[in-house]
């Protein structure tokens, strides 16, 4: 989008929208993401947040930890392990791990490093990315069943151990779609699962959140397009998506979510200091594929981290550019 | 819905019509040709469709691929042997090469050896045809289907949980820990080869069984009457007589191992060091968008197969000479 | 109709004369009792090993989701186990398997007919017409048998794109025809070439044109070989993943056959194994019917294909 906006293909929306109302009503992180060179170029219609940490209220009691360190220090009791992870997904195996790394990069090193990483200018061997992998490695070290279970468990079965008796783990990191799998695969009932936002790591990037969203821009400046854009950002328009379930509105005035998960995800979105798209989705296919595989190789043998990362640098060098 | 109906009509009426029409029409046209020309032209009329298809879909693309393998990813700039150097210096592709070697040795060994043992054993029982059908049936199943079937054979659950995979179900009843069959190299490559052997053993068995029945019963009987035991009969008579057929099925299995793709793609997609050349080629082409490297990979695959092809043609000519 | 046709005299394989029944049985009945028992035991184990994987999947495809992900299929052998057809209903309705089944037929039928027809023309010319370069040309065809399909993908993908037909059924029909021809020509040429010469000579004397001789004599007499080839090619294409994946996979999701759809499902279903297995079994149903119905011809096709890579 940034490229289109800079090339002038996307028309600025500052005189199309009622900017004051738009900024007041829209989650600030999303306003920022749709702004190029100080001009509003794209608006969000709907969004989803990732980096949610799921738990079974019967096992995990008390407040959501405020910091990552506090979370890591949480005792897994009554479960054996703190985390459950499932990376298997056929030919796409490894992708749940990329979400972990993305959350770590954004929370540890902030949006600038994150953007450079997505754009292919941040080396994988740089300390910022390496420390995200190492943080993930620590999580895997506390995962149910060890690396073999992490690698062979399907992402859909990943959270099943939250609901067993005794529970295999206390926490599971995944986007909101996972609740369907909790019910179907894990045999969980409504009320047996809840979530909190993955805590901040570096306080200077408080509220940083990853997710997905649909961005709308205007290529042709016609009266119809202007009317449509102005309508799309209103609470009335965005309610339509929300009522169908599974989507979050960019407009903070929309509050009548059909379920508690959506409602609380919307709060996270509204309060997000920084919002970034899923990095691996934005990378070139070759980079994305190598990223998935790197996750598997790293979990399989953490000692190989340096060679795995330098291999990713090699892929980065040829995957971008043209 | 309409377009599906049209497709169905093309499938059922159009295709056979065109094929039949071609011969009828060209024979009509030949009738106008002068007598001497007609005899010379006719073979080419009958061969033309085949030559056209072979030329367009096998000969031309193979030559073109060889050319493309010397160009960059836009097929614009000549890069010499760069794509080959890349293949021969990259860890992932070298792993693929090594794995194909493992495939070649083990699949040929498992499928031909297993096929021969089963062919010999079933020859001695009355339920031979049922036993053969059972061993043979995986060949009628797609590799994708086989991949799904075996994913559940190799399934892994952490120790202490009820196992859902058949193999780990058996392993854990003996008190041992479950094994992550598809994760640890080189066991995972062997696991994939076992799936291929499950499919191909039936093929080898059927052909070897046919050859076995060609061995004169009187000869075997005479040897036994002379006091030879079964092992001696096998070593002295059966095996030498089966040798030409074994060579044929082994050749087929070698080519099959070199081309191994579907099982790897479905079960691991090359993760955990299970990559093979054919899967790598598809990845270079579609995932990495590198037609130059993909072409070089395909050419290397072809180079590995050519010696086998040469043997095949030699055998064919020798047989033709006897005819 | 010729009953119990003899196997075709195929090149590349030693002659196969079936031994007479009684003698074979006599040979098989030898040996002490314990070794007979050991023989039956070994064969029983082998048959079990070969059946077990498919059996396990079949059982699992009829089990409820929660059971599949938590217990092994063998636990369903207990009398209290529950079974359901919901998995099949789900994949047919939700995952587009019905459409994919029709696509598979649309792909398989022409891709079986075209190469066999084209090959029978060529085989006829190779067998009963003389022309310069005949043997060299036939050897080239045999050589093409082992070309790996990978070698052809890049140029043909570009060709289809330039012709503007990328992603259509036509692409796989044409490609499968090209890929299937060497084997089909090879098999049919060997069979047709083995037909009695006198038949064709007397037909020519009676004034029959080569086309008449082809349709009235060569084709009907080659039915056993053609039947074998039809079954072989049908199964090969129905089960094909690679060609459909390469030519249809990226560009036209609505035209995908069963194999590609099931492979895609195995990446995206997220552990909903029960659906994946039901889907896999649907792809296997037709080949299994063809196989058990026409096993005799199938085996002949394979035996003839021993030289194929």
Can you characterise this structure?
The complex is a heterotrimer of chains A (322), B (323) and C (309). Chain A is of the alpha+beta class. Chain A has a domain at 2-49 and 206-277: D-Maltodextrin-Binding Protein, domain 2 (3-Layer(aba) Sandwich), CATH 3.40.190.10. Chain A has helices spanning 2-6, 19-25, 28-33, 68-72, 95-119, 127-141, 146-152, 178-184, 223-232, 235-243, 260-270, 279-282, 285-300, 305-319, and strands at residues 35-36, 39-40, 42-49, 52-55, 81-84, 169-174, 194-197, 208-217, 248-249, 274-277. In chain A, the strands form three sheets. A four-stranded mixed beta sheet of chain A has the order 9-3-8-10, sandwiched between helices. A four-stranded mixed beta sheet of chain A has the order 5-6-4-7. A two-stranded antiparallel sheet of chain A has the order 1-2. In chain A, strand 1 (35-36) and strand 2 form a beta hairpin. The radius of gyration of chain A is 20 Å and the shape is globular. Chain B has 323 residues and is mostly helical. Chain B has two domains: 2-68; 82-322, MetI-like (MetI-like fold, Orthogonal Bundle). Chain B has helices spanning 2-32, 35-68, 82-89, 91-122, 128-136, 143-153, 166-173, 187-213, 217-225, 230-259, 262-267, 277-287, 291-322. The longest helix of chain B has 34 residues, at 35-68. The model of chain B has no long low-confidence stretch (mean pLDDT 87). Chain C contains 15 helices and no strands. In chain C, helix 4 (86-94) crosses helix 14 (273-293). At the B-C interface, helix 1, helix 2, helix 4, helix 5 and helix 6 of B face helix 1, helix 2, helix 3, helix 5 and helix 6 of C.
């Amino acid at each position: 989008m940034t490229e289109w906006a800079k090339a002038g293909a996307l028309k600025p929306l500052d005189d199309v929208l009622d900017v004051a109302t738009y900024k007041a009503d829209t989650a600030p992180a999303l306003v920022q993401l749709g702004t190029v060179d100080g001009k509003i170029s794209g608006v969000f219609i709907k969004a989803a947040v990732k980096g949610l940490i799921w738990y079974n209220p019967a096992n995990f009691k008390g407040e959501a930890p405020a910091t990552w360190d506090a979370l890591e220090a949480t005792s897994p009791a009554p479960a054996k392990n703190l985390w459950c992870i499932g990376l298997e997904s056929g030919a796409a195996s490894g992708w749940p791990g990329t979400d972990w790394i993305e959350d770590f990069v954004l929370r540890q090193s902030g949006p600038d490093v994150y953007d450079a990483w997505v754009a292919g200018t941040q080396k994988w061997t740089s300390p910022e990315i390496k420390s995200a992998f190492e943080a993930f490695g620590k999580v895997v070290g506390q995962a149910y069943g060890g690396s073999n279970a992490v690698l062979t468990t399907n992402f859909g079965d990943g959270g099943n151990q939250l609901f067993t008796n005794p529970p295999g783990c206390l926490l599971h990191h995944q986007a909101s779609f996972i609740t369907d799998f909790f019910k179907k695969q894990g045999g969980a009932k409504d009320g047996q699962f809840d979530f909190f936002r993955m805590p901040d790591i570096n306080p200077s990037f408080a509220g940083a959140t990853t997710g997905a969203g649909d961005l709308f821009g205007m290529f042709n400046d016609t009266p119809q397009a202007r009317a449509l854009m102005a309508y799309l950002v209103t609470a009335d328009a965005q309610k339509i998506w929300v009522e169908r379930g599974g989507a979050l509105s960019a407009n903070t005035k929309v509050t009548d979510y059909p379920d508690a998960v959506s409602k609380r995800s919307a709060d996270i979105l509204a309060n997000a200091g920084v919002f970034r798209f899923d990095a691996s989705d934005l990378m070139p296919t070759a980079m994305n594929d190598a990223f998935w595989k790197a996750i598997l190789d790293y979990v399989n043998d953490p000692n190989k981290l340096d060679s795995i990362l330098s291999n990713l640098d090699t892929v980065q060098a040829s995957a971008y550019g043209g | 819905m309409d377009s599906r109906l049209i497709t169905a009509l093309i499938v059922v009426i159009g295709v056979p019509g065109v094929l039949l029409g071609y011969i009828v029409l060209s024979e009509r046209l030949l009738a106008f040709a002068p007598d001497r020309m007609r005899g010379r032209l006719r073979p080419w009329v009958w061969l033309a469709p085949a030559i056209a298809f072979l030329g367009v879909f096998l000969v031309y693309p193979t030559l073109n691929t060889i050319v493309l393998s010397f160009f960059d990813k836009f097929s614009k700039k000549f890069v010499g042997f760069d794509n080959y150097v890349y293949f021969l210096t990259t860890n992932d592709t070298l792993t693929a090469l090594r794995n194909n070697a493992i495939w070649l040795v083990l699949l040929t060994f498992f499928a031909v050896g297993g096929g021969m043992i089963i062919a010999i054993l079933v020859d001695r029982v009355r339920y031979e045809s049922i036993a053969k059908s059972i061993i043979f049936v995986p060949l009628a199943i797609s590799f994708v289907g086989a991949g799904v079937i075996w994913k559940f054979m190799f399934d892994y659950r952490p120790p202490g949980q009820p196992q859902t995979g058949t193999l780990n179900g058996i392993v854990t009843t003996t008190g041992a820990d479950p094994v992550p069959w598809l994760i640890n190299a080189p066991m995972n490559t062997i696991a994939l080869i076992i799936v291929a052997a499950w499919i191909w053993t039936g093929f080898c068995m059927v052909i070897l069984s046919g050859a076995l029945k060609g061995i004169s019963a009187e000869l075997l009987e005479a040897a036994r009457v002379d006091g030879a035991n079964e092992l001696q009969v096998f070593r002295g008579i059966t095996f030498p007589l089966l040798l030409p057929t074994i060579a044929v099925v082994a050749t087929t299995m070698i080519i099959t191992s070199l081309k191994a793709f579907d099982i790897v793609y479905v079960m691991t997609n090359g993760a955990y060091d299970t990559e093979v050349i054919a899967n790598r080629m598809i990845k270079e082409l579609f995932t990495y968008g590198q037609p130059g490297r993909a072409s070089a990979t395909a050419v290397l695959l072809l180079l590995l197969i050519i010696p086998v092809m040469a043997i095949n043609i030699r055998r064919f000519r020798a047989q033709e000479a006897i005819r | 109709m010729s009953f119990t046709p003899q196997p075709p005299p195929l090149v590349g394989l030693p002659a196969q004369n079936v031994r007479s029944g009684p003698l074979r049985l006599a040979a098989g009945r030898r040996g002490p009792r314990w070794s007979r028992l050991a023989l039956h035991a070994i064969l029983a184990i082998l048959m079990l090993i070969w059946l077990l994987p498919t059996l396990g999947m079949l059982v699992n495809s009829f089990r409820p989701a929660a059971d599949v992900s938590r217990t092994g299929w063998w636990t369903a052998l207990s009398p209290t186990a529950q079974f359901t057809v919901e998995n099949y209903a789900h994949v047919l309705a939700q995952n587009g398997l019905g459409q994919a089944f029709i696509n598979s037929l649309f792909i398989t039928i022409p891709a079986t007919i075209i190469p066999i027809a084209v090959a029978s023309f060529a085989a006829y010319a190779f067998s009963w017409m003389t022309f310069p370069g005949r043997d060299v040309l036939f050897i080239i065809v045999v050589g093409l048998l082992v070309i790996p399909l990978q070698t052809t993908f890049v140029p043909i993908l570009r060709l289809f794109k330039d012709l503007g037909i990328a992603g259509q059924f036509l692409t796989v029909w044409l490609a499968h025809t090209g890929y299937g021809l060497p084997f089909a020509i090879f098999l049919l040429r060997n069979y047709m070439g083995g037909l009695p010469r006198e038949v064709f000579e007397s037909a020519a004397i009676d004034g029959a044109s080569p086309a008449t001789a082809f349709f009235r004599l060569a084709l009907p007499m080659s039915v056993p070989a053609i039947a074998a080839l039809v079954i072989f090619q049908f199964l090969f294409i129905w089960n094909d993943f690679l060609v459909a994946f390469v030519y249809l996979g990226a560009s036209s999701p609505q035209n995908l056959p069963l194999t590609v759809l099931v492979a895609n499902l195995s990446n995206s279903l997220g552990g909903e194994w029960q659906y994946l297995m039901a889907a896999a079994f649907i792809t296997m149903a037709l080949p299994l019917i063809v196989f058990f119905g026409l096993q005799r011809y199938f085996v002949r096709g394979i035996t003839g294909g021993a030289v194929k890579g």
